[in-house]
Design goal:
- There is one protein chain.
- By secondary structure, the chain is mainly β.
- Helices cover 8% and strands 26% of the residues.
- The protein has one domain: Distorted Sandwich (Coagulation Factor XIII, Chain A, domain 1).
- The strands form 3 sheets. A 5-stranded mixed beta sheet has the order 3-11-10-5-6, with no helix packed on it. A 4-stranded antiparallel beta sheet has the order 2-1-4-9. A two-stranded antiparallel ribbon has the order 7-8.
- This is lytic cellulose monooxygenase (C4-dehydrogenating).
Length: 255
């Protein structure tokens, strides 16, 4: 197998408006769900038909981490369906493409009405919590032995696996999955954020997580001058210890 390093094609892709991406498919509990498709719905006016929320910004990035669009995207109104997901299981996000380099991370939030997510936007709720993150990771094919998490996703056919915490209470949730492009992170406002949300119903959880103790706001958890947002991405990866922006992933209480 021939592996292509994203940085090798980095320079030619940065300037292209098509050089972005979005999650085009989710796989949860053995079932696949196609997301809202900006390419086939270019006017962005057709309502989503599945579990994924509307992408009002299409495949383009968010640049202001304090904007309400950082929650799930621009005009990310609720979708009509929910996917059944077992707590402790692994779900998979498949991106249509991803040419940039940077970290990957995922948040969740319960939907407060306890029935569905039809009336929950999440922009002012302090109920978000990060469930996973990956920044600079071991990578055998790089001379330094390190690379960005997005290279791992690229090698896996633009797929990323996410483990749902076992300690959740059963009920409706938003899953917020995001990649970040760091090629311009050396200037304030240069980082690019690609958040998107899917609606799920969690079952089989142990209900041991105290969200009141760990919850954060989105926007708010990621700041424009976070060390994981504003830094020199051109330095060798061996020169610094990178932490993804925002809070650290939760750790389920031992039972």
């Amino acid at each position: 197998m021939v592996l292509i390093s994203i940085p090798l094609v980095f320079a030619s892709l940065v300037a292209s408006s098509a050089a972005h991406g979005h999650v085009r498919k989710w796989r949860m509990n053995g079932k696949s769900y196609t997301t809202y498709e900006p390419y086939s719905q270019p006017d962005f006016k057709q309502p989503p038909k599945g579990i994924a929320r509307f992408l009002g910004n299409g495949i383009n990035p968010m640049k202001d981490p304090l904007s309400p669009a950082m929650t799930c995207n621009v005009d990310s109104y609720p979708a009509p369906l929910m996917a059944n997901v077992t707590a402790g299981s692994t779900i998979t996000a498949t991106w249509n493409s991803w040419p940039h380099v940077g970290p990957i991370y995922t948040y969740m939030s319960p939907c407060p009405n306890g029935r569905d997510c039809s009336d929950f936007l999440g922009t002012t709720s302090r109920t978000w919590f990060k469930i996973e993150e990956a920044g600079v990771v071991p990578y055998a094919y790089a001379s330094s032995g390190l690379d960005w998490a997005t290279q791992i996703m690229y090698d896996a056919g633009n797929t990323w696996n996410i483990t749902i915490p076992k300690c959740l209470s059963d009920g409706p949730y938003l899953i917020r999955h995001e990649t970040m492009a760091i090629q311009d992170s050396n200037v304030l406002g240069g980082a690019q954020f690609y958040p998107q949300c899917a609606q799920v119903w969690i079952s089989g959880g142990s209900a041991t997580l105290d969200i009141g103790a760990v919850g954060v706001q989105l926007p708010g958890d990621i700041q424009p001058d976070d060390a994981g947002v504003l830094f020199d991405p051109r330095k060798p990866l061996t020169d610094y210890v990178y932490k993804a922006p925002g809070s650290r992933p939760i750790v389920c209480p031992s039972v």
